[in-house]
């Protein structure tokens, strides 16, 4: 019975005249007593009505053909929903004690005898109508209390959640503040070194040896700044789901071995007892991202292991998984830090000297790149000074033979003529000087429209085009050069600070042959120009 329903009374009688008389009598008081009257001509009809409605009381004729009143009452009270409906039996004869007992056993609330006395009928019906209304009111109050209790519980849970979120936000803000302070330190160090080395190059009394050392410092610190920017961008892309993997089948052992060769070539491994066990293990993954994973783990081991310590690196198969393990004897990980070691901005104890360096985002990037490959990463450590072990698990793939990529063809007649379209004056000047020192003829343009005109006039072999140009951007430069028959064959290389997979796709769709991200690695650029001797 809903909040807006009137209580209902069901009158059941097979005799049409009796049924009409009883329902008419009840309907006289319906508005005053606030109820509604329904009728049924048989026991089966009464059961159908009970299925459709809830009733405050049922007036049920005892003597009906087919299903009599007793059988009807029993059937009504067998249903859980209608089991508590009070039934008043109506009969034309005086029931003996046996009939009364039989009626009460089937759930009768009372008896009435015909002819019905109107005042008695009204009084009895009114009792049950009032009771139904009180029960409905109690039910609504109980529902309201239940809803109120549920609302209070939900509010309490929400408050507890908000308190925990506030505490978590405060912890994150604290970690971010520490990270920003650390980032400022990490940026100022190489910038200070570059500034000092640049000043030294400008001094009249600087000798050749000092100048050469200053140039090496500038090169090394510029690479360090580039790595910091790349780490920040890669982590941002990974967290926002913007990294698209370029998958192919590759040998994880060969990839890790190549990473180790790079660390050895830069002198990073000389002070350590390093052991590598690399068994062939094939995965379906992005070579660049998997190299980032391996390099970050190896770099982490080198960074936190004192000189003379041991580092063990292993690649192998374990059932359906390829497993990369990096184990070191370094400073270890405290028990309270271990569960958070892959979280963003989390790093071990931060000292004022920052002897380890780094931003503390490498392991977070590792976790996200591993998850993108459908793998898992875990860390173990017995505690401070107990060393640590990092394990990467990736889905195993079938071995495949990789075809060697063809080297760019050397232009006929020697080194190609290069058109450099770059709006940054300092960057354009330094790139032109560098290429000229390697024997290239370099043409320069500071904007897109001028660059297109210069290309049409001089027909260079290669055009190095910045994307963010004034006038028309690098994409439009490429499209215009590809439309003209005279300039269609120029080799187009995009030089840009935009390095997302979406940016690479747009570059290739615009008509570029290659996409290089700033700051451009000299060896990579020379290789693209076909100068393999200079690149080596």
Structure explained in plain terms:
The chain has 536 residues and is an alpha/beta fold. The chain has 4 domains: 8-116, 3-Layer(aba) Sandwich (Rossmann fold); 181-239; 247-395, Histidine kinase-like ATPase, C-terminal domain (Heat Shock Protein 90, 2-Layer Sandwich), CATH 3.30.565.10; 417-535, Rossmann fold, CATH 3.40.50. The protein has 16 helices and 17 strands. It has helices spanning 16-27, 30-33, 43-52, 69-78, 97-105, 118-201, 208-239, 252-265, 287-303, 362-372, 425-437, 448-458, 474-483, 501-510, 522-528, 532-535; strands at 8-12, 36-40, 57-61, 87-91, 108-113, 247-251, 273-278, 282-286, 310-318, 321-328, 376-380, 388-395, 417-421, 441-445, 462-466, 491-496, 514-517. The strands form 4 sheets. A 5-stranded parallel sheet has the order 2-1-3-4-5, with helices on both faces. A 5-stranded mixed sheet has the order 7-9-10-12-11. α14 (501-510) links the parallel β16 and β17 (514-517). The radius of gyration is 43 Å and the shape is elongated.
